[in-house]
Amino acid sequence: MGQISVIVTVYNKEDYIQKCLDSLLQQSYQDFEIILINDASTDLSKEIIERYHDPRMSCYHLDTNVGVSKARNMGIDHASNEFIYFMDGDDYLAPYTLELLLSNVGEDHLIGASIFKAGKIDIPTEIGEDSYHLRRLRGGRKIKALRRRSATNFLIRKDFVEWHQLRFDEEATFYTDLSFSIPAIVNSEEIPMISGVPTYLKGECYDPIDHPTLMLHSVEEKLPDLFYIYHKMKLSYGETKSISRYLDLLLLNYYSKSITNKATKEPSVLFDHFTALKNCLALVAPGRIKRRNLVERREHRLLQKGKKEAVLKSMKFRVRLRQWRRALRKKHLLMRQLYRTVLVKMPMKERKVLLESFGGKGYSDSPRYIYEELLKSNQKYDYLWVYDKQKKDIPGNPKQVRRLSPAYYYHLATAKYWVSNARMPNFAIKRPETVYLQTWHGTPLKKLAADMKEVRMPGTTTEKYKRNFYNEAQKWDYLVSPNDYSTQIFRRAFKFGKEMLDVGYPRNDILYLPDEEKKSRQQEIKTKLGIPADKKVILYAPTWRDDEFHGKGQYKFDLKLDLKKMQERLGDQYVIALRMHYLVAEHIDTTDMSDFVYNLSDYGDIAELYLLSDVLITDYSSVFFDYANLRRPILFFTYDIEKYRDSLRGFYMDFENEAPGPLLRTSEGVLDAIENLERIEIQYESKFNAFYDKYCHLDDGYAAKKVINRVFEPEKAEV
């Protein structure tokens, strides 16, 4: 069938394979066959593949996992067309890819094109001759065809493959593509290469922790493979100068960075592979070694003499030298280097407690209420509150330290206790003696961390975001949970294996004050904010949507509520308090509405705004879980629920059936609901009670005390 045999290998790619196959079947060029090798997948890959009934697809479901090399070789054996094209089951193509390659291959044996990382690539709907660049690689420049060391995105003639007996080395896994690509390049006089337009998209890694892509595996896993392929390719094709140079640089650069960095932390990586490393480095061209720096050249001589300990010592020196050179470029890098090398070795201050809320943006949330409960206890601690831009008015007169200031690094390194409701900086080193109490900041409605499939946030990738989140969660000693529902999700989404504190949220303790005290606090807050005492308060607290940004650091929010109409119809009885996400708060325009609209987005503690308000309007923000503790009306303004549920984050709970209030699509619907609150409360009474029993069952006003008894005074908890 057709001119091209597309060979797709699949192993546990249930999150990717549909996108991969759809991109193939939607190609502008349709004259091809698909040879799909399912390498004994244990997930739902087989079931997804079997949904397709295209006659061009030939599927081979293996009973035993044989590895990508053998699977591709099987695909070569089954290929019946003039050209072969390899794809991995977690990648996908731009719709014009096959046509573009076929129309430019001419009489050449093979043609290649650039490989792009998926995520933020804009793929044009159609392209012309001026949309891309075609260059012909000759001589030593042919090595540029080895982009990303991949054999994918080459269109290669099958008779050329057969004539030169091109196969993937089945003894290799991580670097097996080189065993196919290098001889293909050596035996081609010229290689046309297309660039400048997206063609082949490397899929994002959705689970870099439990299911990493091949190249995300650890150094120690990849080393035997690297040494094997380097040795074999060097002996077979080392006479070709460009291939020899490529292989030498591949080995030397991996040695200089990845192997060295890993060995300085885990010496066994060097010692266990010392002989293989020595033998491979002995094959490196002497001139290539001479181009390395003085320290590394001396290190190679020590390695050839078999002096393992001396090599390790030299590696550690090289790493420190590299770190300090980088640190001297900028002040913040210098502070982090001092933190890593000096401050974390200073004596631990056993009574020092470092607290921060939302990265220092406020004196609020559960860290606040834990702190205030600690002040009431007989325990004497030295408290430090982290602030971001300006100091806060905090009772007890604690020391306040600006985030990322020199003092911050010192206190971060020497504090016995860390208390936070969000992630600490990625560079933070948790010493074995440090006790890290993570309170988190909400009952999850939207998918979190590892449970999110794709991450669409400015300045990061799915793989980077999830890996950073995982590394952070492994530092936590205690994690506070507000209910049993959250406990199950936190365990999985954060991959958290230490102690869960199932006590409710300390920030909700204020919601269980006696009724008279609640009313008194409500009036105090109104007076402080200048809200008329006789006006009821509507609190509008929507979530931030992950896709609403112009670029990194540039966010937007389209306020769908008609505030002017609300003022016309409700202004006699109500005012509205806006609690927007801090990333978009400053973009909300409330001009000429100061007597009705109060933008309280920067108000320190949202729990006090709960007490202040008589009704809550929200959408997918977790605020409604907390607000339900007050048993006051909740309205859900969900104008984009399909998009949010199906495209952005997805929900854990059956939101549409469990929500303890009506889901309203229009601003007019919200207005009508507020004017008929009594009817809505009666209508949703049974749903509200069921919701309260499921999600508020741990909150009782004593969460902060329970946390302190376990974390700061464990001997009391045991009595």
From TrEMBL:
It comes from Guptibacillus hwajinpoensis. It is found in: Cell membrane. Keywords: Cell membrane, Membrane, Teichoic acid biosynthesis, Transferase. SUPFAM superfamilies: Nucleotide-diphospho-sugar transferases, UDP-Glycosyltransferase/glycogen phosphorylase. It is a peripheral membrane protein. This is Glycosyltransferase. GO terms for biological process: teichoic acid biosynthetic process. Belongs to the CDP-glycerol glycerophosphotransferase family. One of its GO terms (cellular component) is plasma membrane. The keyword Cell membrane applies. One of its GO terms (molecular function) is CDP-glycerol glycerophosphotransferase activity. Its main location: membrane. The keyword Methyltransferase does not apply. Signal peptide: none annotated. Residues 5-159 form the Glycosyltransferase 2-like domain. InterPro entries: Glycerophosphate_synth (IPR007554), Glyco_trans_2-like (IPR001173), Nucleotide-diphossugar_trans (IPR029044), TagF_C (IPR043148), TagF_N (IPR043149), Teichoic_Acid_Biosynth (IPR051612).
